[in-house]
Amino acid sequence: MASKRKHPKFLRPNYGRSSRSRIKLAWRRPRGIDNKKRAKIKYMGCSPSIGYGQPSEIKGRHPKGMPEVIVQTPADLKGLKDVVVRIAGGVGRAKREAIIKACESAKLHVVNKSKKYAAKKPKEAKLAAKKQEEQKKPEAKKAEEKKPEATKMAEAKKE
Known about the structure:
Largest sheet: 3 strands, parallel
Number of strands: 3
Number of domains: 3
Strand content: 5-15%
Order of helices and strands: EEHEHHH
Oligomer: single chain
Shape: elongated
C-alpha cells in the first residue's frame, strides 16, 4: 500500500503580509491582473494544480488502506469485505448498536463506533420523580377535602 504523498501548504496570495492582517489562511484562487501568484512567480509560493493529486489506487481511501463505506442499516453490511465502515450520522442508538454487532461478527472495522447520547433514566428514577411531583401538590388534595358533601356526591353520580 502506497502512502499518501505530501504537498506544500497552499497559502492565499499576500497571506502573512503585516499590512494585510485581515487575509485568512483559506485558499482562494488569485484573479487579479497584476497578481504575482496568478502569474506563478516562484517566491510567491505554490498554487494547487492537478500534479499534486494522489495516485489513483489510494485516492479516496481511508488511512487504514481500505475503501470506506457509509452504512445506514444492518442490511447494508451484506456482502461487504475488506472495507472500513462509517455509520451515517442520522442513525439512532438502537440501529447503531445493531450495526456494530453485525460488524463485529463480520470482522469489519467501524470508524465512528462511539457516539455520545444523553444518559437514559432508568424506570426507578422516573417513578421517584413522579412521587416527588405528587408530594408537591398537597394543595389540590386539601381543596377536594374542603368541598361540601353534596358536590362530592353529585360528582360521583356523574362518573
